[in-house]
Amino acid sequence: QPKVQENTQIEEKKQEEKNGDEHNENDSTNKNCENMLSFVKSCDLKNGVDFLLINENDRTIKLKNNEWNSYNFGVFLLGENTILTVHYDKKRYHDEFGHLKMNTSHLWIKHSFSKIHCSQLGYPKDQGPGKGGRGKSFNGGGGYGTKGGEGDVLLGAGKAGEMYGEETLLKEIHFGSGGGGSDLLQVGGNGGGIIELIIRQQLINHGSIQCNGGDGNILGGGGSGGSILIQLQCQSSFSSRSRLCPNNFEHTLGYITCVGGKQNEINKGGKGRIAIYGLELSSDNIKNIDPKPFNRIHK
């Protein structure tokens, strides 16, 4: 009899611990961005470790490059003209390109001139699988998701860079390629970098998320756009423990772009690639997303 009673007490204790874990999980999950912000302000959590909150204006924050930056309690870019990018030292690491990886419960970009970007952090001029060709006059634009632009090749213009990669961004994900040209007046633009975002509850983007290519100079070809992969997990997953997913939070996707440099020129860079999972996109969702994203509910 004492043995049975002891086992019963152990099981009751385990159940209490489980209920306590679920209660703690309930405290920090199934909250929209505003509620989560209030939650982190009231808790003993560390800014820059457990969450990332930027209230100041005109701040540039650089996260680890090509490593996962994880914030379990959200990323809140609330200051005006706030820029979030990666540590990138091209002079020191010649083969390093800009690749931002971020896993967070929430992402809130509050103001229109604030942004997350890896623009012009891909392949430099004359480099990459879709690099633009050199010519006697205009140099060709870099290619990636679309072919780059080119002038009249018969008159000596450089050839456009070709397409490469695949649309889902799951089998392979690429940097944008550089535009053609490395001479003084023919410097091609850099290609765009890569951004990968995993957002477990809510995305509110009133600013922009960018991996655009660079312009280069007068006769240089534009660099092609890079890659943006966004996974909105809580719309398509279900937690057996907390039973809080999927939620009904409304996402604001806002401006998301992977366009090439020199978009109004004949030797413009090609567009990059964007893929968004976890939410079925409407025509209203994608009106400010360029290029048109690959979209599925499930990966």
Automatic annotation (TrEMBL):
Residue spans of biased composition, Basic and acidic residues class: 10-28
Region annotated Disordered, chain positions: 1-31, 124-144
PANTHER family, A to Z: EPHRIN TYPE-B RECEPTOR, MRAZ
Name this protein carries in UniProt: Tenascin XB-like protein
